Amino acid sequence: MSTSTTSAPPPGTQDPPSKIRRGPAHPVTARRGWRRALRRDWQLYSLAVLPLLFFLVFRYLPMIGNVIAFRRFEPGGSILGEQWVGLRYVRMFLTDPTFWQVFRNTLWLGGLTLLFCFPIPIVLALLLNEVRRRSLKRFVQSVSYLPHFLSIVIVAGITMQMLATDGPVNHVLDWFGHDPVRFIQEPGWFRTIYVGSEIWQTAGWGTILYLAALTTIDEDLYEAARIDGASRWRQIWHVTLPGIRPTMITLLILNIGTFMAVGFEKVLLLYNPLTYPTADVVSTYLYRAGVESNSFSYAAAIGLFEAIIGLVLVTGANQLSRRTVGTSLW
């Protein structure tokens, strides 16, 4: 009588225990682990309560009000509008020549701000990293950081006083025999004034993240570059810049996300009816249309359009960064 036996596999063909695939953790087990971590570190998690409440109350709940972009809103009536009008307000701003003028101004100011205000902190951080005298380095850092702590109102006031018809800049021009220039009233000067004030206010503060990133670069890489005969410029190009590239990409994506939200407060303080052709941007146009003219539904439609463009820009920049350099926010 024959019996069937199952022969054991030859030695060396069995999978080692460490390579056996395991299924995903059971939801109950994952939930228990989360509860255990919450009980253990509840003091740390409690610190996130206020920030989460802030974003919930001031960021997410107001998004419900975007419904008035498709409903007729009347002051004193329902907070969600009185009557459904569909895409009426969308068609209104798409056919409004004034909107497209302020849209072009927004693209100009946003593009110039990104072009100049993004690389200058990188250059300043690289220059400060090469300074060997600590006293000089601290002095330059302090002087460049200080404008960040001034309110936008003070920065706008200083800018207007410096560029006034009887201000210091025009006094210097008068010494060279030049006639006074009305910088604040000339539309052609507004973009230069705005971008210049942004550079002065934000360049020093923007170097903090890059200086922190520079401290994480391994010194052995610089030593190896010097042994290979690389000059200081070559070390910066092949060691320093690749070392801070993740920080650069992250900040670039964040800046692109706020591309359409050009500084509302500063533009509102610096511009005037004479400079509307180059100074009026989407945010200030929304303020005049919504708050001053009580066209809240029309302003909500434009604001929703602006938010969608910002979402597309930041998502596209993130995907492009992931595919090209392998660094992204998510």
Task: Explain what the structure shows.
With about 325 residues, the chain is mostly helical. Helix content is about 65%, strand content about 0%. It is built from 17 helices and two strands. The protein has helices at about 25-40, 40-45, 50-60, 90-95, 95-115, 120-130, 135-145, 150-160, 170-175, 185-215, 220-225, 230-245, 245-255, 265-270, 275-280, 280-290, 295-325, and strands at about 70, 85. Helix 5 (about 95-115) packs parallel to helix 10. The longest helix has 29 residues, at about 295-325. The chain is globular, with a radius of gyration of 29 Å.
Q: What's the arrangement of secondary structure elements?
A:
Layout: H1 27-40, H2 42-46, H3 49-60, E1 71-72, E2 83-84, H4 88-94, H5 97-117, H6 119-130, H7 134-145, H8 152-162, H9 168-175, H10 187-214, H11 219-227, H12 232-243, H13 245-257, H14 264-270, H15 276-279, H16 282-292, H17 296-324
Antiparallel strand pairs: 1-2
Shape: globular
Structural class: mainly alpha
Strand content: under 5%
Mean pLDDT: 85
Largest sheet: 2 strands, antiparallel
CA-CA gap between termini: 67 Å
- Please give the order of strands in the largest beta sheet: 1-2
Estimate percent helicity.
Answer: 55-70%
Helical region count?
17
CA radius of gyration: 29 Å
Helices and strands, in N-to-C order? HHHEEHHHHHHHHHHHHHH
* Uncertain ranges: 1-8, 12-21
Q: Based on DSSP secondary structure assignment, what is the total number of beta strands?
A: 2
